[in-house]
């Protein structure tokens, strides 16, 4: 714990055996590693900063209660930059899968930006070739509604971004942040990334696949109650401006985010929001 260079508040490991594991940094409950038979599926920048303050550049970031720029707080909200708690330590289930649960509640820091009570629970289940994420947001306020956007921003580890093919966007409208938020409709059944890409696809189907992950495998993403999908790669010029990202790393990652990115979720007092996503290596 802790060193001159970094303030590491701790990590939690889910180990399924056969070199299949998942590591969560309690800073932001950021999933910083998912290995299947020794093969790393997530990208974390070699320049990522682990100072307990900045969002970790890579892995799976928990974005809440704001996706994107925020007038009253940091971009992508505060959940990815605060310490999370372990609700349930990693436990091996009878079928060999391993699960653990994390949570955060409002603090003086969160209320200084967003003056609401909340409870956010994040359960991860590691299977043989799958990683499942279960998200619950509870509104404990007596009178106030809460509104939020939410995303699991995932940096996937790919050997060559130019060879990735991503399905599940055809016919969807998208907001193109590289073109002053112009709204268009995706015509392609298979999307390839060949330039700076920053899009929010709306009302995407439950399933996406991404080809040419490490060792040529594909990943299948299945999501429930996460209607939108973000797609981001900074490409060459923007990468140069990111201090916690190496210039050439853009070619080894694609960021995909399942969530409620456009229309906020509205929760009345006492209500709960539940959503989930599963990554499967195929
Ligand atoms: O540097 P950050 O705050 O982690 O954001 C990285 C990117 O995250 C993506 O989700 C956004 O769509 C991009 O606009 C943004 O540049």
Topology:
Layout: E1 11-17, E2 20-25, E3 30-36, E4 39-40, E5 60-63, E6 85-92, E7 98-105, H1 108-113, E8 119-126, E9 130-138, E10 146-157, E11 166-167, E12 173-176, E13 182-185, E14 190-191, E15 197-201, E16 207-210, E17 219-224, E18 228-233, H2 235-241, E19 253-267, E20 272-281
Antiparallel strand pairs: 1-2, 2-3, 3-4, 5-10, 6-7, 7-8, 8-9, 9-20, 10-19, 11-14, 12-13, 12-15, 15-18, 16-17, 17-20, 18-19
Bound molecules: 6-O-phosphono-beta-D-glucopyranose.
Mind explaining what this structure looks like?
The chain is mainly beta and 282 residues long. The chain has one domain: Beta-galactosidase, Chain A, domain 5 (Distorted Sandwich), CATH 2.70.98.10. Helix content is 5%, strand content 46%. It contains two helices and 20 strands. The strands form four sheets. It has a seven-stranded antiparallel β-sheet, with no helix packed on it. A seven-stranded antiparallel β-sheet has the order 6-7-8-9-20-17-16, with no helix packed on it. Strands 1-2-3-4 form a four-stranded antiparallel β-sheet, with no helix packed on it. It is globular and about 50 Å long. The N and C termini lie far apart (36 Å). The N terminus is likely disordered. The structure holds 6-O-phosphono-beta-D-glucopyranose. The site of 6-O-phosphono-beta-D-glucopyranose has 9 residues, from β18. 6-O-phosphono-beta-D-glucopyranose binds next to β18.
